[in-house]
Predict the 3D structure of the following.
Amino acid sequence: SSGINAEYGMLAVAMVILGAGNLPNCPLAPGLEIYLLGSGVTVLVTTFIGVSVQRRINKRYPLTIDRRCANNTLNIVTLLTNVAWSLPGGYWVFSNIVPNFTDRSSPLYCHRDSFFLAMWTCVITWGVALFLIYFWIRLDRAIVRNDIKSSSQEDDSRYCGDSSGCDT
């Protein structure tokens, strides 16, 4: 998990550097560098806040099952914040024709690295968001089914007088 956070942090730093360094370098989509800058800062801030809040959640709820609601809330807020930034970025990337990457004087010019970083971060953000939403729904349903199954087995053992259940 810390390796993923480090890689995600490096990507965010690259977004901030390319966004800030190329602010006037995309006349075709002037908001593209603002998206990179803002999204990079948002990723860094939400990662920092997420790690510090996660530590507090872990201290407050020592049992894993008790952390489920707090963890889901934290993850959903972080995901929605990052997806919210990717929506205008996606508009600036995908609403335009393919830019001219060579002629800086052209009104269709856009810095190549900024354009492709913005495009791929949007695609990856949307893909990860869809995967996580699907995964959280499936995982939460499995946890609920397991909780129900566990509690029904516990109830059976109370009536049978031993911990093995009523398998007679």
